[in-house]
Each structure stands twice: as C-alpha cells, then as structure tokens.
Amino acid sequence: MPEIVTIGETMAAFTPNSTGVLRYVRNFEMRIAGAESNLAIGVAKLGHEAGWISCLGKDEFGEFVRNSIRAEGVDTSRVIFDGEHRTGVMFKQIMNVSETSVFYYRDDSAASHMFPGMIDEDYLAEAEIIHLTGITPVLGDSCKRMVEAVMDMAKRHHRLISFDPNIRKKLWKNCDYASMLRDMTLQAQIVLLGMDEADILFGIDAPRQIMDILFTKGNAQYVAVKNGAKGAYVGKKGNLNKNTADIIQAEIDLSQELGFFYAAIPPYSCNCADPVGAGDAFNAAFLCGLLEGKDLVNCGYMGAVAGAMATETYGDIEGYPSRQQIEVALQGIDVIYR
Questions:
Q1: Cα 220 from Cα 261, distance rounded (Å)
Q2: CB atoms within 10 A of CB 245
Q3: Does residue 247 register a pLDDT over 70?
Q4: Vertex 81 angle, CA 166 and 74, to 5°
Q5: Which CATH architecture has domain 4-330?
Q6: How many whole angstroms from its chain centre is CA 173?
C-alpha cells in the first residue's frame, strides 16, 4: 500500500516547442500537469510507494493522464473516470527561463466535481502521509468538502497531513480564499509553502515569524518555506538535535525558547529551463526524507536538490531525480558519463 497518498486534479498539458507568445507557436508536446500527481511521481522516483486519487474525464485525455502517471510507478487504482465531464486541459507559454505562464481550460472538469463519497477511507488509513494542496478546495464546493472530509479521515486514523497552499490566483477569479487556505494550513502537521504564499496567508515574509505562527498557532511538526532560487528554510517542532547543531546557523538558537528550530538550506546549482514543478519536487523529496527518518537538514537538502533538477526540463516531472541521482548529488560524487 502507498506510504504517501495525494488527491487532486491533473490535466493534459500542452508545452510549446518554442518560446514566445502562443499566437506564434505552431507545435506543442502533450504532457501532464498537476501538483499532486507531480508529488506522487517524485515520491515514486525516489523509491517510495505513492498513490494518487482523482477524477478524470472518460476521454482520451483522461486515459493519457492516468496512463502517464501509472507508468511512473504511482498507484492509480482509486482514480474515477467521469462520463459526464471532461478532463481538464492547460497550455504553457514560455517567454524565458524566469517567465512561464499558464492558460487553464479546466472549468467544469471531471476533477472539479470530486466529492467526499469517492474517497476510500481504508486506503487512506494505510498511508503514513496524506498530501493535499490549496488548489483542490478552490475548484468547487464539492472539492472543498472532499478536502475537509479527507482531513477529518486523516485525523481519525492519526495519519500525518501534509499541506501546500500552492496558491493559484488565476483559479481564485473574483473570490478570496486566503482565510480558507490559512485554516487548512494550520491544521496540517507538515506545512510546505512558498515565501510569497506565507505573505499572502499570514502577512509575513520572515522565516522565523512564519515558523512561529505555524508551530505555535497551528499543528505543524515540520515546515519548509521555499524561496525559489534563493533556497529554503526548514523547521521542526521540538529541541535541537545535537548531531546537526554544527551545521545549523547560529540564529536558530533564538527560537529554542519557543519550542522549535529552523535551518537555512542553500540553493542547489542548476541550469534552469522552466521553474514549474520545482516546488512539488522539493515537497516530494522532503517528505521522502521524513519517511526515511533523516534529520531536518538532510530532508531540506534532498528537497533543494530535487527542486533544482526539476527546473532543467520543460515538463513538470521529466527532470525529477531518481534515488541514485539524488544520492550522487548529495554526496558530491563525480560521475563519468563517457
């Protein structure tokens, strides 16, 4: 059974074969795109069991999405095919390495009709971590109720809830979902969010204060605050482990009196082609580190390496590292290719 189960929408994604505005693009490659399936694939590539739950249209795009995710070693046995609604579609527009925009065609998609009754509670209860994002509950009221039900199930079975707000303002349209996502973030034991998302949800962009809120006002036991090319900060509730004290910045001692500590994780060097999917790769590797019982800093390093490697391809998941690749990177081993 999966160690990590995640739930959310995955779309057929069309990536242009050239940069520039889409009106001048003639050729596209079909891939998949979905934060939750990205994470599940990242987990599977690192040698752990992952399950992905969703609704797909009973159409060719739905078959393509399910087959693509299943081919990466993810359990898709709880995916439902909806004969009344279509699979969502999206197009990427790539201007340069720092500017990738997306155009969604996902209104009334099959996944936007996910509902509490579709969830197999026994399946969730077998997992160690249930991973959710802030994308799913804004897709529709039934999706919101489904996410809330999954959180209740996780609590009933004492499973860890991992939550990434993954704010997509294009999906918010004229609504403000900050309050709802703030509440969900505070319910999770593992919080994975971007620095900009912390600012939107809590009005704070300083790592120590973000940690303070999540550890003292929420249920967080582990936190990762991702800051793109600048690296990340990872935190843990409890006392500092003496084994890692020598590689953690001195500023962490300031937080000890509050019952948590955190560390700055430097960025891993990469040749960025497309940053989309990097945050999900970070999340996947960080969670795998936790499953393996690694210390906080090494979990953060795993996340940084995976996130950096993810940016080196134009697809969301094509650059995600295998277990061997991430170990080579972490150990600084020189590889002979020819």
A1: 12
A2: 12
A3: no
A4: 55
A5: 3-Layer(aba) Sandwich (3.40)
A6: 22
Give the C-alpha distances (Å, rounded to integers) separating 196 from 158, 201, 206: 30, 9, 10
CA distances from 21 to 189, 224, 297 (A): 41, 34, 40
State the DSSP H helix or E strand holding residue 302, giving kind and residue range, or none if neither: helix 296-310
Residues in the chain: 338
Helix (H, G, I), strand (E, B) or coil at 115: coil
| Predicted structure pTM score | 0.92
Q: HSE (CB half, 13 Å, CA atoms) of 314?
A: 19
At 265-315, the pLDDT tens digits run 999 887 777 777 889 999 999 999 999 999 999 999 999 999 999 888 777
**Tokens standing for residue 101:** 């925009």
Question: How far is CA 26 from its chain centroid?
Answer: 31
Distance between start and end Cα atoms, the chain: 39
pLDDT at position 331 is 83
Report the alpha-carbon distance of residue 11 to residue 17 in Å, rounded: 19
Cα angle for residues 243, 246, 249 (degrees, 5° grid): 125
CA–chain centroid gap for 177, Å, is 19
Q: In what order do the strands lie in the sheet with 190-194?
A: 50-53, 4-7, 129-133, 160-164, 190-194, 222-226, 232-237, 260-265
Query: Tens digit of pLDDT for each residue in 145-176?
Result: 999 999 999 999 999 999 999 999 889 988 99
